[in-house]
Amino acid sequence: MDSRIEEKYIPALRFNFLTRYYDFLVANFLQERKWKSFFVQSFMNKSPHNILDVGCGTATLSILIKQQYPQALVTGIDGDEHILNIAARKIRENNLKIELVKGYSYKLPYPDNHFDVVSSSLMLHHLSQEDKHRTIQEVFRVLKPGGEFNIADWGKPDSRIVRLLFYIVQFLDGFKTTRDNVKGLIPEYLKENRFSHVNELKRYPTLLGSISIYQAIKS
Ligand SMILES: C[S@@+](CC[C@H](N)C(=O)[O-])C[C@H]1O[C@@H](n2cnc3c(N)ncnc32)[C@H](O)[C@@H]1O
Predict the structure, then answer these.
(1) DSSP reduced 3-state for 126
(2) From the CA of 128, how far away is ligand 1's center (Å)?
(3) CATH 3.40.50.150 fits 3-217, yes or no
């Protein structure tokens, strides 16, 4: 693989040594169960065959997806081998079959028109503006016509307090990559890259900022 691409990803909590605390922090500070349950139930396609979870991390979302759609072939892809080991252990403990792949959102190792659903949670804010666009274009390419892209990520804060709290996330994850999220630009980027029916389905205030659930269709 191209070494320039090999290096380009930001670990879940920016530093590898913090990865082991990721699940604890997300469960306790981001009310993860609440919005991830809504997320998996909001897929428009209720019987998808082939689902890709991009930036799957520790696979909490991939596991919920597989439990909600047991008939589907679920694949999680992530650039970080270390976090994929944690994901593999959790999948084994849950006795599920989910394929895990090391790879990058802006260079997905799949043919065109392959997935019914692509999901991505808390991953886009790890990417530069250019890589956000490249990733959205890649997701568009691998989705089947009529397929859907479901996203959960930091969105526009609902209040000044939520905006202030989000500085903690920006400090950790970087100001450059999170700026577009705070400005609420993800829906615009989806439209610019040919997605239609772009919607913010819900916004969840958390202790560290607002998490928006977006949905977009490849018409
Ligand atoms: C904050 S974690 C989110 C993990 C999980 N989706 C969740 O909701 O808990 C972001 C993940 O995206 C991965 N990541 C960042 N940039 C990536 C890229 N360009 N391609 C694939 N994975 C990436 C990181 O390694 C990390 O595991």
Answers:
(1) helix
(2) 13
(3) yes
pTM here is 0.92
182-209 burial: b if 16+ Cβ within 10 Å, else e: bebbbbebbeebebeebeeebbbebebb
Position in ligand 1 atom list of the atom nearest CA 36: 8
Distance 76 CA to ligand 1 centre (A): 10
Helix (H, G, I), strand (E, B) or coil at 51: strand
For the chain, report the end-to-end CA distance as a whole number of angstroms: 32
**Ligand 1 pocket: which residues have CB below 6 Å?**
9-12, 26, 55-57, 60-61, 78-80, 83, 104-106, 121-123, 126-127
- Distance (Å) from CA 95 to ligand 1 centroid: 23
For ligand 1, the distance from its centroid to the CA atom of residue 184, given in whole angstroms, is: 20
Going from the C-alpha of 146 to that of each of 71, 109, 149, 207, 216, the distances in angstroms are 19, 20, 10, 35, 10
- Cα–Cα distance for residue pair 119/91, rounded to 1 Å: 17
Distance CA 66, CA 46 (A): 12
Domain spans of the chain?
A: 3-217
DSSP string, 127-159: S-HHHHHHHHHHHHHHEEEEEEEEEEEE---SS
Q: For residue 67, what are its two tokens?
A: 């439990």
| Best of 20, 65, 126 for a ligand 1 pocket test (most atoms within 8 Å of beta carbon) | 126
Q: What's the pLDDT tens digit per position in 106-148?
A: 999 999 999 999 999 999 999 999 999 999 999 999 999 999 9
